[in-house]
């Protein structure tokens, strides 16, 4: 595949990665490539997989495996990555980075305030409609979704360059603590980038998947527990996961499952906070030096330089005990140089180090496990390389830390495996992932009490650490008119503590139901009973909550007369047959009753409808059923005749009691209830706002394409001019043109060169392309002659070899005619003569044309072209191939063989049998001499033994294969034993 790169980390590791991935992909169908994007706060990694090519990391234009998530604008130009970082040092207000955590945030969110404090030179304003973050630089304004979308477009470009294919599908990695607002905002950004998101996968889940892929053979039916600890640039998180082989109840297949059991995080603890503190420390030290009266903290450019140097210094101090911070011309042309020790750096971050173990402890608490059952604590994330962080973790857990993961790329590789699993063009070995809910979601509604007053009811839909994707159902039994309910986050205090405001609005949606009374009035009748209004909710594999549908459930009791009237002849026959095999339906009570009793309970979530139900949910469900629906269940038991008194009566009365348990046929009818959902968190970018953003990005893309086209055309024109001037100074090229042609080319090149450095410096792409085409028209005649003179010797040499081969074939072909070899008359004299004329004519043409071409000067029009030579070679090749194919298809004539003489063979066999009988009779009459061997006795007894063995075989029903069957079996052929 064009542009595909196979650079993997580490020699042995690279080989292992390639082998495991190739073995993991069971079969790859024809399909488009897909990618994963690890859009971190500081770095962006792109994973790709295409048909027939294993998973790999896409390289950027600098051939690096990760790219800074920075974008910069200056004078209409747009740059990304390292170029944007370089521009950001000079113009920090025009270079934007660390953007991911601003997704889905309103302007008053604490995380936005922290961002402003860290980067005071940004002009951040409020979106007038959505109240979200907008970056302003002069007349230009960009929403956070627009900036993220442009970064995703860059990632898409890297992936397409790596695979040589158009990419439209991806899996995006997000922090696990992203709520509904952040996740929907990221989906809007991906849509702006023309990407279809197959799934949003949490970073620790992607890492756990990648870890399990390479240890598939170590996973068994016994659960194994691992803790993954991540410290990145912006945040720190820890997740406890389990690996286990689980059999699917539906398919009966066994697959490895990785399930998230507990999660803890600190969304402000990371390498960025350490870098900011080191930046502020360096700034204070520079001010103490008194080299200038200007405060360094008031100069954005100086602050950007300090921030960049602090990042470099932080990385160096991870491996060294001390290092010098050096910045030339930091402020007012004053240089800065300061020795910083690791001890000083650790003192600056002392309070941060005290928070290192908190996410780990929270994850263990949420999972209900202790450290003694954890197999390993695995590190990933760039800032886990800090020695102090590792020392704290090692002392806390009392064991060595596992560092057998690529800390930068593990999440990206796990996500691209998931992308291949979800895409239609690939088939991979199943590895099931079950994520966990971090922020519980509940439904809140009003219900009228016994006194007539309204009271607020809360029902948890998705509890903390419940696995997802999953579906839930809530049944509203008491509402007979239009009503509304809200969906909210629940129990955030236990998850976020004092940082609950960082999640934004706690209300997620408001749902209004209409036509409830109308549907009930139309549906409920004498034999129809309402089973309540059921609302179906979904938490998909991206962790996004939605209302699937709302419906009114009615149960209509069908009388025996109605059932018989509706039953056709064929149905009666079918029912009769089914009763013969399954028994009378009166022998057991209806299975519908228990389900109905669950639905009769007060408004409560039903059991989960997907296979991801866990024991914890079942316990919660059973507890809720017992607490809230006991009265209705007791009523249901009384109706079904399943109480203790009813059972005793049933035993005493026998058949009559049995007949009393017969339930009439019940038909369930569902009516859709119209519902209006209004999102109450940060609204996604959609509608007119989305179209406006898409137009702005399209305009930027057009500018970039025009810029790239202009640069390409300018480079091509400059290169051609310089190349032509150099070549015309060489005799090899100058000899191929006349004096006038050479002078014209030189003159045109000089004119264009002067124009480029004067008026043509600001010309557009069309002008450059037109001038290049005019110059090529003048110079190509000389270049064409040079090419002909250079390539002609090789073409003539190829023609010579073809002639020699044709002559050799002709010599052999002359011996395969009827006149020379009657038994092998492959060719006719006409065919031999035709080939001979073709060879002779080609030789004569070559000699004549070469002689005439040699008489011409190099600058004259070419007489013998390379095309003429290749045409002659093609003609001669056709003649030879015709005879070669005829030789391949020729078969010698086979003389008919006389039929076998059957009678003679039969007579010989009969005479042979008679001779054998005579010899046997003679051997019985004559005694054996003393010195003779006795093989004849063994031969005489052999038929008797075979007969006895045959009779024994028949009696035991074991029949040996015949002689023919044995021979065919020895030859490896298929046979059937009779």
Automatic annotation (TrEMBL):
Residues 559-658, 892-978 are annotated as: Disordered. Residues 1-31 form the signal peptide. Gene3D superfamilies: 1.20.1270.10, 3.30.30.30, 3.30.420.40, Actin, Chain A, domain 4, Substrate Binding Domain Of DNAk, Chain A, domain 1. Its main location: endoplasmic reticulum. Residues 585-599, 607-637, 646-658, 901-963 have a biased composition (Basic and acidic residues). PROSITE patterns: HSP70_3. SUPFAM superfamilies: Actin-like ATPase domain, Heat shock protein 70kD (HSP70), C-terminal subdomain. It is found in: Endoplasmic reticulum lumen. GO terms for molecular function: ATP binding; ATP-dependent protein folding chaperone. Coiled coil: none annotated. Residues 568-579 have a biased composition (Polar residues). GO terms for biological process: endoplasmic reticulum unfolded protein response. CDD domains: ASKHA_NBD_HSP70_HYOU1. Keywords: ATP-binding, Chaperone, Endoplasmic reticulum, Nucleotide-binding, Signal. GO terms for cellular component: endoplasmic reticulum chaperone complex; endoplasmic reticulum lumen. PANTHER family: HSC70CB, ISOFORM G-RELATED, HYPOXIA UP-REGULATED PROTEIN 1. This is Hypoxia up-regulated protein 1.
């Amino acid at each position: 595949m064009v542009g595909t790169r196979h650079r993997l980390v580490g020699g042995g590791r690279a080989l292992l990665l390639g082998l495991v991935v190739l073995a993991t992909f069971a079969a790859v169908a024809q399909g488009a490539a897909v990618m994963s994007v690890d859009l971190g706060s500081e770095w962006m990694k792109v994973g790709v997989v295409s048909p027939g090519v294993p998973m790999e990391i896409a390289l950027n234009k600098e051939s690096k495996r990760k790219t800074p998530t920075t974008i910069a604008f200056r004078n209409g130009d747009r740059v990304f990555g390292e170029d944007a970082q370089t521009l950001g040092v000079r113009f920090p207000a025009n270079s934007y980075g660390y953007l991911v955590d601003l997704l889905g945030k309103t302007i008053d969110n604490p995380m936005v305030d922290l961002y402003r404090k860290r980067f005071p030179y940004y002009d951040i304003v409020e979106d007038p409609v959505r109240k979200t973050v907008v970056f302003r630089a002069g007349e230009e304004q960009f929403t956070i979704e627009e900036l993220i979308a442009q970064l995703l477009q860059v990632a898409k470009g890297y992936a397409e360059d790596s695979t040589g294919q158009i990419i439209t599908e991806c899996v995006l990695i997000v922090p696990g603590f992203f709520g509904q607002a952040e996740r929907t905002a990221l989906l809007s950004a991906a849509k702006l980038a023309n990407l279809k998101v197959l799934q949003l996968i949490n970073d620790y889940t992607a890492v756990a998947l990648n870890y399990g892929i390479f240890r598939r053979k170590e996973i068994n039916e016994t659960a194994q527990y691992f803790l993954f600890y991540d410290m990145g640039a912006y945040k720190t998180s820890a997740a406890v996961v389990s690996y286990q082989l689980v059999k699917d109840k539906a398919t009966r297949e066994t697959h490895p499952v990785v399930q998230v059991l507990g999660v803890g995080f600190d969304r402000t603890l990371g390498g960025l906070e350490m870098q900011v503190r080191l930046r502020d420390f360096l700034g204070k030290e520079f001010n103490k030096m008194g080299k200038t009266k200007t405060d360094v903290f008031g100069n954005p450019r100086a602050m950007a330089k300090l921030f960049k140097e602090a990042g470099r210094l932080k990385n160096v101090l991870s491996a060294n005990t001390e290092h010098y911070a050096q910045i030339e011309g930091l402020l007012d042309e004053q240089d800065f140089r300061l020795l910083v020790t690791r001890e000083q750096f650790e003192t600056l971050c002392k309070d941060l180090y005290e928070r290192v173990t908190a996410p780990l402890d929270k994850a263990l608490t949420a999972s209900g496990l202790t450290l003694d059952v954890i197999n390993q604590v695995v590190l990933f994330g760039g800032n886990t390389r800090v020695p102090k962080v590792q020392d704290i973790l090692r002392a806390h857990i009392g064991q060595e830390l596992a560092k057998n993961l690529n800390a930068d790329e593990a999440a990206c590789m796990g996500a691209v495996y998931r992308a291949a699993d979800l895409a239609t063009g690939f088939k991979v070995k199943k590895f099931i992932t079950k994520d966990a809910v971090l922020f519980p979601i509940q439904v809140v509604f009003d219900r009228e009490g016994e006194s007539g007053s309204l009271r607020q009811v809360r029902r948890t839909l998705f509890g903390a650490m419940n696995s997802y994707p999953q579906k839930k159902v809530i049944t509203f039994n008491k509402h007979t008119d239009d009503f509304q309910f809200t969906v909210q986050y629940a129990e955030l205090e236990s998850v976020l503590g004092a940082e609950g405001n960082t999640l934004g609005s706690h209300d997620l949606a408001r749902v209004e139901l209409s036509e409830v009374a109308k549907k009930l009035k139309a549906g409920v009748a004498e034999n129809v009973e309402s089973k309540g209004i059921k609302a179906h909710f979904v938490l998909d594999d991206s962790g996004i909550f939605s209302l699937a549908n709302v419906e009114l459930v009615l149960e209509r009791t069908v009388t025996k007369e109605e059932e018989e009237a509706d039953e056709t002849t064929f149905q009666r026959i079918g029912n009769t047959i089914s009763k013969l095999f399954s028994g009378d339906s009166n022998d057991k009570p209806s299975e519908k009753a228990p389900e109905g009793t669950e639905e009769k309970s007060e408004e409560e979530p039903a059991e989960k409808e997907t296979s991801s139900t866990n024991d914890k949910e079942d316990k919660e469900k059973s507890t809720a059923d017992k607490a809230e629906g006991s009265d209705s269940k007791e009523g249901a038991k009384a109706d079904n005749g399943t109480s203790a008194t009813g059972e005793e009566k049933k035993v005493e009365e026998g058949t009559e009691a049995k007949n009393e348990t017969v339930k009439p046929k019940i038909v369930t009818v569902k009516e859709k209830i119209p519902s209006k959902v209004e999102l109450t968190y940060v609204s996604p970018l959609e509608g007119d706002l989305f179209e406006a953003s898409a137009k702005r990005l399209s305009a930027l893309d057009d500018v970039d394409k025009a810029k790239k086209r202009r640069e390409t055309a300018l480079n091509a024109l400059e290169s051609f001019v310089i190349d032509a001037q150099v070549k015309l100074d060489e005799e090899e090229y100058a000899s191929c043109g006349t004096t006038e042609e050479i002078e014209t080319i030189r003159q045109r090149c000089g004119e264009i060169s002067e124009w480029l450095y004067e008026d043509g410096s600001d010309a557009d792409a069309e002008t450059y392309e037109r001038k290049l085409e005019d110059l090529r028209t003048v110079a190509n005649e000389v270049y064409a002659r040079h090419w002909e003179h250079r390539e002609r010797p090789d073409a003539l040499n190829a023609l010579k070899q073809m002639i020699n081969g044709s002559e050799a074939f002709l010599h052999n072909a002359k011996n395969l005619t009827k006149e020379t070899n009657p038994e092998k008359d492959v060719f006719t004299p006409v065919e031999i003569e035709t080939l001979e004329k073709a060879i002779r004519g080609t030789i004569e043409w070559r000699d004549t044309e070469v002689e005439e071409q040699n008489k011409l000067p190099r600058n004259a029009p070419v007489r013998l072209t390379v095309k003429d030579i290749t045409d002659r070679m093609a003609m001669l090749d056709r003649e030879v191939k015709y005879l070669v194919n005829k030789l391949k298809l020729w078969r010698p004539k086979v003389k008919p063989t006389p039929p076998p003489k059957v009678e003679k063979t039969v007579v010989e066999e009969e005479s042979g049998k008679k001779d054998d009988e005579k010899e046997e009779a003679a051997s019985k009459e004559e005694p054996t001499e003393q010195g003779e061997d006795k093989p004849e006795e063994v031969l005489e007894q052999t038929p008797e033994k075979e007969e006895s063995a045959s009779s024994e075989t028949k009696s035991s029903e074991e029949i040996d294969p015949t002689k023919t069957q044995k021979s065919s079996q020895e030859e490896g052929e298929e046979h059937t034993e009779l």
